[in-house]
Amino acid sequence: MEFDKFRTMHFPRDVFVGHGVIENVGGVVSRNLRSGSVAVITGNTTYSMAGRTVAELIESSGFDVHVHITGEANTENLNMAEEFCREVGAGMVIGVGGGTKIDLAKKAAYELDLPFVSVPTSPSHDGIASPRASIKRSGCNLSEEAAMPVAIIADTSIMVKAPYRYLAAGAADVISNETAILDWKLANRLHGEDFSTSAAALSQYAARELIEKAHLIMPGVEESVWLVMKQILASGTAMAIASSSRPASGSEHLIAHSLEMLGAGNSIHGEQCAIGSVVSMYLHGGRWEELAETYRKIRLSIRAKDYNISDITMIKALSTAHRIRPERYTILGERDLSYSAAERALEITGII
Ligand SMILES: NC(=O)C1=CN([C@@H]2O[C@H](COP(=O)(O)OP(=O)(O)OC[C@H]3O[C@@H](n4cnc5c(N)ncnc54)[C@H](OP(=O)(O)O)[C@@H]3O)[C@@H](O)[C@H]2O)C=CC1
Ligand SMILES: O=C(CO)COP(=O)(O)O
Ligand SMILES: [Zn+2]
């Protein structure tokens, strides 16, 4: 019998995590830059937190470096980042910042076929170590294929300075893998969707580690950033194995995306995923109370009103979330949840 299964996976060749690892940036450039200059994509705040240091370290290693300061991850800023890389003759793109700067750099590098290096300054979600980028297109921010970092330099002494809320959100993004895996298994059982045992095991391991160690996730503690960052890396690797966000994105992410489109108040990605995972676990008939308790331990609210999300918006977001990515089957099914069923699920779980 002929064996015609194949899959291509891309992994980083260097991963540096911990105190002061930013010092490794010069070495990373010399190992990965074949020709041209280095383009550093960063933000206003993150330039002073880390972007400037990255540029100085690269320059003092003898390379030509150019800095581009940008804003949110939308198509306009992506086009400008690509244009900048072309103008400066970039042979490598380095993203220094939170999720938005990493995604712009990652997608620009992918479009220009250049090596990409991720220097996250905030542990806000697992996209900082994955081959996926979320570029806002027509109000939607589903992740899309992008460059896998050739190197990740996650300096915990910089990341601990980001507001604690981002650390809790990053942890929640990984913890919410619990429901993503249940959804993936369901899609495999009901529709024969391809399932990777290794990607699922890694993704679930990352979530379980953070659930078991939630009491150690605290504001202002570098060790907590280390703990979460390790599992962000594991979750990103699971997505690299699957060449898809499937191991880390199921119904809870559909609810998060649905909220983004309908009005997510002042919530950020990981907080939306936390809310989504609790109600989704309830719909799966699983231990949603364990998830709710874990989020309480890491000081992350799952109450919609704490983010200025109205009950009506929350109910509508849950009820219609399945429409967002119809090809990715989840517990939300293929029809809108009835208003009363969605309302009941959200009331029982304490979200509204
Ligand atoms: N690729 C993927 O798979 C995923 C991507 N996303 C996307 O990621 C984005 C959200 O990322 P997120 O990190 O929350 O948002 P931002 O990149 O906007 O960062 C949030 C804020 O934190 C600041 N900041 C970052 N690091 C530090 C630090 N060390 N100290 C002080 N301030 C800091 C940033 O400054 P500055 O102004 O300099 O940027 C910014 O003002 C969204 O676009 C979302 O769609 C979400 C999930 C998955
Ligand atoms: O946020 C992600 C994984 O945590 C990416 O998920 P999406 O592909 O649903 O955008
Ligand atoms: Zn996510």
Give the tally of β-strands.
8
Report the total helices.
Answer: 14
Give the low-confidence spans.
none
Largest sheet: 6 strands, parallel
Looking at the structure, the CATH topology of the largest domain is Dehydroquinate synthase-like, alpha domain
Structure description:
The protein folds into two domains: 146 residues, Rossmann fold (3-Layer(aba) Sandwich); 185 residues, Dehydroquinate synthase-like - alpha domain (Dehydroquinate synthase-like, alpha domain). The mean pLDDT is 97. The strands form two sheets. Strands 1-8-5-4-2-3 form a six-stranded parallel beta sheet, with helices on both faces. The protein has a two-stranded antiparallel sheet with strand order 6-7. Helix content is 51%, strand content 11%. The chain is globular and about 65 Å long. It binds NADPH dihydro-nicotinamide-adenine-dinucleotide phosphate, 1,3-dihydroxyacetonephosphate and zinc ion (ZN). The site of 1,3-dihydroxyacetonephosphate (13P) has 12 residues, from β6. The site of 1,3-dihydroxyacetonephosphate has 12 residues, from β6.
Topology:
Elements: E1 14-18, H1 25-32, E2 37-42, H2 44-60, E3 65-69, H3 75-87, E4 90-97, H4 99-112, E5 116-120, E6 132-134, E7 143-145, E8 151-155, H5 156-159, H6 164-175, H7 177-191, H8 197-212, H9 222-242, H10 251-262, H11 269-284, H12 288-297, H13 311-320, H14 339-348
Parallel strand pairs: 1-8, 2-3, 2-4, 4-5, 5-8
Antiparallel strand pairs: 6-7
